[in-house]
Task: structure prediction
Amino acid sequence: MNTKVRELLNDQINKEFYSAYLYLDFSNYFKAKGLDGFANWYMIQAQEERDHAMLFYQYLQNESEPVELLAIEKPDKKIECDMDILKAGLEHEKYVTSLINAIYAEAQKVNDFRTMQFLDWFIKEQGEEETNANDMITKMQLFGTDPRGLYLLNQELAARVYSAPSLVL
Ligand code: FEO
Result:
């Protein structure tokens, strides 16, 4: 495998674990506020990010490439209100999309078709992640300022259940 492509894939393991850590922090914030539904939603988001990390890990191993696990940074988002979290979530997903696109571009440069095919799933997934983050902001803007609306939104988010990724390596 091309060195640059391998390095970017290896870095992505770390970025995805950081994403899990970030969403766990968001879940922790909402749990402390008594908004269990929001806490549940971000807890499941954290589980999905851990799955993403493991997919990159597994892909490199399947390709017989070395994996180096790097230090995971402390979640660094400045949070003063609920909306800050939702907006930070969207901003973060856009950042992750740019990372996936950058790996794809490198793979394309060196005709690494297998890596491109592996990344196809993530390109679609990032579209869904950005849509979900956007929807959260819209719902919060519509209902979050009214206590009863916030209660119902919290109940809706409590219903989210974890499902394993559709990509199997
Ligand atoms: Fe793993 Fe939310 O992207």
Summary: The CA atoms of residues 61 and 67 lie 7 Å apart.
